[in-house]
Amino acid sequence: MTRSELNRLLRNSLPAKLRPKPIQEILERTLANRTRVLKSEAYEDVKRISVPALPPTPFHYALSLRGSAHLSHASTVYLLGLTQQQPKTVYVNREQSSKPAAEGPINQESIDRAFSRPQRRSNYAYKIDGFQIVLLSGKSTGNAGVINEPKTCLPMTCLERTLIDIVVRPRYAGGVFQAAQAFSQAAKEVDIPKLVSLLSRLNYRYLYHQALGFYLENAGNNDSRLGRLRDPLQFDFYLDYSMENPSFSKS
After folding, report:
1. Rounded CA Rg of the chain
2. What integer pLDDT is reported at residue 149 of this predicted model?
3. How do residues 174-220 score in pLDDT, each as one tens digit?
4. Which residue has the higher pLDDT, 102 or 228?
5. Global pTM?
6. How far, in Å, CA of 245 to CA of 146, rounded?
7. Sign, Cα dihedral of 42, 179, 197, 236
């Protein structure tokens, strides 16, 4: 928590005659509380009050950076059990305010041009305990597909939202090969109608339904409802940005 959050907690918990500051000093002197620093190369360092006895994880520190944030991408791939290796980068997303949708139709030329460039990356990064925390500012979705992790109650994206997110930004999943492995692990569990409904709600401009269908088919998912991810196939699309010598799949 922040120091102001600790002050508020103590004010609400202590008798009126006791002041928070002396109690804070006692807590820090007895090591019941510790002040931790999240260091950044591009932004001002951030201080947080931790309780070692709990203990906090890198996920807790990540979520403390911004209110109403949730864990996403490679972090939820790990929390959902789609990989056994815990990534050293924690991704946490706080949605932007609503913005007007892009106007005008897309065409093959605009798709080719957009995906010939490198994927945009967030520079909003901090380090603590050997982990890097990257704060993302995703599009406004009303936190669609955000749930609480069953064991810790930490906010995170559900399985279907996570699969969509790592298709939209594969580098935040470790790359397309790691994304493909996540789809292989999720193939039997994913709810196709829920995935399609959630994708429609997210209302992306680009043709991510084609990439989702490709990953699921490649993972061995033969659900007849995958056809909903093939309609329409108006343009050629890409699994990643700035690909060199890509292969082509008609499906």
Report:
1. 21
2. 92
3. 999 999 999 999 999 999 999 999 999 999 999 999 999 999 999 99
4. 228
5. 0.91
6. 36
7. positive
Q: What is the DSSP string of the chain?
A: --HHHHHHHHHHHS-TTS-HHHHHHHHHHTTSSEEEEEB-SSS--EEEEE-TTS---HHHHHHTTSTT-EE-THHHHHHTTS-SSPPSEEEEE-PPPP-PPPPS---HHHHHHHHTSPPP----EEEETTEEEEEE-PPP-SSTTEEE-TTT--EEE-HHHHHHHHHHSGGGGTSHHHHHHHHHHHTTT--HHHHHHHHHHHT-SS-HHHHHHHHHHHTT---GGGGGGTS---S---SSSS-SS------
Give 47's Cβ-side CA count (13 Å radius): 8
- Assess contact for 172 and 136: CB atoms under 8 A: yes
